[in-house]
Specification:
Layout (H helix, E strand, L loop, with lengths): L18 E4 L6 E5 L9 H12 L3 E5 L2 H9 L8 H15 L4 E6 L1 H7 L7 E7 L24 E6 L7 H5 L7 E6 L16 H21 L2
Parallel strand pairs: 2-3, 2-4, 4-5, 5-6, 6-7
Antiparallel strand pairs: 1-3
Helix pairs in contact: 1-6
Length: 222
């Protein structure tokens, strides 16, 4: 048997999406998608996955098709369009969800997760740094669907996130199913300023604690 925080020694490829596993095989499952610019092995993704695994959660990370293509061809390709991203996400859900699970992701990955609430295998959604709008362009809002979200959704948002800071998010109309937890002085990756008195590690620890509690709460619900 593998230790709780072990990363699987092999990378699976269910169709188009490479997959990496952390945590015990009998733990509640969290399917964790990466953001637009970094893949599933980015330090942020790995640290969050490892932290969740330490609490007994089975974390399934995967690469979207465009990210696989970047690695194969050593070229920079932009993210796929939403239908292709959602299809890849759904494929991983079908592969790894033997019962309803929590899905989520960093930035773009979280937004894609929030668009899959109609999937019967999705019990809850967790978004780490939701990209409500491009930096400096609040008019290009991408969170309209959160006003009618019908499943529990946890959003962990940096107070200074340029994709949607605390003051902006507090003024938004969100479903009662959406809970927003603000990360102290955090930017889009939850990094605080030195003068704030907080540290990046402190914030990541808070994020893992909040996320773990949410995933376990979904697992205990009937």
């Amino acid at each position: 048997m593998t230790a709780k925080n072990d990363i699987a020694s092999e990378t699976y490829q269910p169709g188009s999406a490479q997959v990496q596993l952390n945590g015990p095989s009998d733990g509640p499952v969290f399917i964790f998608a990466h953001g637009a610019g970094a893949d599933m092995d980015h330090a942020f993704m790995a640290q969050v996955a490892s932290g969740l695994a330490e609490t007994g959660i089975r974390v399934v990370r995967f690469n979207f098709p465009y990210m696989i293509r970047r690695a194969q061809e050593a070229k920079q390709f932009p993210p796929d369009r939403a239908p292709k991203l959602l299809a890849a996400f759904d494929e991983v859900i079908q592969q790894y969800a033997t019962r309803p699970v929590v899905i989520g992701g960093k930035s773009m990955g979280g937004r894609m997760a929030s668009l899959l609430t109609q999937n019967e295998l999705v019990k809850g959604i967790a978004c780490l740094g939701f990209p409500f709008h491009p930096p400096g362009k609040p008019e290009k809002f991408k969170g309209e669907h959160l006003a009618t979200c019908d499943k529990p959704c946890l959003i962990l948002q940096g107070e200074r996130d340029t994709f949607g800071c605390r003051d902006e998010v507090m003024a938004m109309t969100l479903s009662s199913q959406v809970e927003v937890v603000y990360v102290p002085d955090g930017d889009h990756s939850f990094k605080p300023r030195k003068r704030s008195g907080y540290t990046e590690q402190d914030n990541l620890t808070r994020v893992v604690e909040q996320l773990s509690a949410f995933i376990w709460s979904m697992n205990h619900e009937k």
